[in-house]
Design a protein that fits this description.
The structure is a homodimer.
Chain A (H helix, E strand, L loop, with lengths): L1 E5 L6 H13 L3 E6 L4 E3 L5 E3 L2 E2 L10 E4 L4 H5 L3 H12 L4 E4 L3 H6 L7 E2 L6 H6 L3 E2 L4 E4 L2 E4 L5 H15 L1
Parallel strand pairs in A: 1-2, 1-6, 2-5, 6-7, 7-11, 8-9
Antiparallel strand pairs in A: 3-4, 10-11
């Protein structure tokens, strides 16, 4: 499977690297796209290479989307193309996994309407206002949408996401 | 299964958190032991809570051992108890996973004699001098000993370790 990760500087380091290595462990192809080229740095200055410019992303080339948290999503939601890409994954019904503040991109892409979801407590009101049915659990799986709250939820988050991905195989 | 992680300040953050969350994803019990109490910080200042003083560790309480890298192992190998604990896991034939500089503890515990193993390139000569049969692969599984070279090997490392652990069930 081909998984797209969308992020920018100041992602949450665990929320980037745990899913990244975990998907590789499953032998999936993982592509990191950003509006920035070269490398992007986490809040703890861990760096990951950017594989492609998000402006070059064709959603048809990917089977699923993953959105790490940190302050990266709030940066990316201010630009048209990242929001458009997220929206196209949602409209296509492809699996989307989003953790912590990743859900800010889901809000902007209008991908949470009538969906059960969770998020970082600080943006709970925002996902509710965006039409989500808020649930306070380590992982919430609603059809092909997988959401979690924070780094400590990562084991549940990836168990949920991989289970959704394997149903596509 | 009950897995013990032994570390100290300045562990490699990915080599701590990827295995930590990954083992939790498998529903294993994970205990972090150190010579320091409270929290220990990675090279990138990510913090993890210390569950127990290494001086209180009884090897009989655990099924397997995991050693992250960073400069933590070089610090810990200077003390008697961490080396003794590693040595007891090895003598008992319990699964041990060690990555990068974690192998410095295996050297001091004389746990590498006649074992196929890999490590961070900078300590290759040391594991050879300690009796290991050096192999340059992302993961080397030799009976119950699982070794890797660096953070980028983590997907292979944990695939190897979990496969060894599941054989014990």
């Amino acid at each position: 499977m081909r998984i797209l990760i969308i992020s920018y500087d100041n992602y949450d380091d665990s929320e980037m690297f745990y899913p990244y290595y975990r998907l590789l462990e499953e032998d999936f192809d993982v592509t990191v796209a950003s509006t920035k080229s070269g490398e992007i740095s986490g809040k703890h200055w861990m760096k990951i290479g950017v594989d492609m410019d998000i402006n070059d992303v064709d959603v048809n080339d990917f089977d699923a989307l993953l959105l790490p948290g940190g302050t990266a999503p709030e940066k990316l939601r201010q630009e048209q193309k990242p929001v458009e890409v997220v929206s196209m994954f949602a409209k296509a019904g492809k699996p989307i996994a989003s953790i912590c503040h990743g859900q800010q991109l889901l809000i902007s892409a209008k991908a949470l309407v009538d969906k059960k979801a969770t998020c970082y407590p600080g943006i709970k009101d925002d996902i509710i206002n965006a039409g989500a049915i808020y649930v306070d659990e380590p992982v919430v799986v609603c059809e092909n949408l997988v959401t979690s709250r924070r780094p400590q939820d990562l084991p549940y988050f990836m168990r949920g996401f991989i289970s959704v991905l394997k149903k596509q195989l």
